[in-house]
Amino acid sequence: MKAVQWYAPRKMRLIEIERPSPKPQEALIRVASVGICGSDLHYYREGRIGTQQVLTEPVILGHEYAGIVEAVGAEADPALLGKRVAVEPGIPCLACESCATGHYNVCRKMFFPGGPGANGAFCEYMTVHAAFCFPIPDTMSLQEAAMIEPAAVAVHAVELAQLAPGETVAVFGLGPIGLLTAQVAKFSGARTLYGADLLEYRLEAGRRFGVDAAFSARTQDPVAEILAATNGRGVDVAIDCTNASEGLGLAVQATRPAGRCVLVGISGEEWDPLPVSIARRRELSLRWCRRFCHNFPNTIALAASGRLDVRSLITHSFPLEETQAAFDLVAENRDNVLKASIDR
Predict the structure, then answer these.
(1) Domain residue spans of the chain
(2) What sign for the dihedral angle of Cα 115, 119, 121, 123?
(3) In the CATH scheme, what is the code of domain 153-288?
């Protein structure tokens, strides 16, 4: 089968590898759509995320994917055959303390495709534990189904924020995750939603997706603007969806005393600065979002109902053979790109 392999920073190649066969609990997925994620970009550009997740050999990237089940193992549900599915990519051990207590997303033995030592989904076929394949309704395209993975991150982030109806929210970073998070926060009851980004076209996208006031981090001080708009109080909830080391610090500064901050974005660094004196004096609650946890079924339902718009975020589509061109487009923020996907 065909696959696209990363082999050095900003270098990919089309290769032929053997098509996998499903193990007893697995399903064989004919991959139909794969989204390019911000973490993929870190690997593509720098070959690492922090100092512990480092690519030391060629690897196939990609984890936001959907497809059609073409075969199942002897212990997998045969009803999945032929089904169009969104795939939850991270496969936990299902036996450790974290898994047993419902926090499988922080399982230390998690298998996650598209990183060091684990090939991902920029290929024609994938095998995955069948329990993590979620059938989608006929009204949902497979492109949209691949968006369930980042959308589930947004759902989990707002879940961690414990947002109450009528509260105010700020989202820093209006890339795909930030725009999805803004949508979820809005229909979860945010009274006023603020957003900030460096790129003007993303600010405009934020306004389309429910952001009431969008501030340019290139020409404005978003923290000062948010404090001015709230009469110095700050917001109840601030969510960092940037890919910058400064993101969490901005969120902390924009949050009211006894408010909540959630970190979603990945800067790519092992250590990021944090204004601890502000966080301490305000007695802020800080939460870190680790992907998602039991969120796929509800996220599929939200997207299928139209309450969560994932379709409009998909701005570009490429064939597998043009994966590097897609990565370059996203890495350089060209052509007003939001989400680019690789489709068959």
Answers:
(1) 2-147+310-343, 153-288
(2) positive
(3) 3.40.50.720
Per residue in 213-261, pLDDT (tens digit) is 999 999 999 999 999 999 999 999 999 999 999 999 999 999 999 999 9
**Cα 214-293-23 angle, rounded to 5 deg:** 130
pLDDT at 130: 98
pLDDT surpasses 90 at 268 = no
| The token pair that represents 178 in the structure block | 């930030």
pLDDT digits (tens, 9 = 90+) for 104-137: 999 999 999 999 999 999 999 999 999 999 999 9
Q: Which residues contact 2 (CB under 8 A, 6 or more apart)?
A: 14, 15, 16, 123, 124, 320, 321
Decide whether 2-147+310-343 matches 153-288 in CATH topology. Answer: no
173 pLDDT more than 90: yes
Indicate the CATH number of 2-147+310-343 among 3.40.630.30, 3.90.180.10, 3.40.50.20, 3.40.50.620: 3.90.180.10
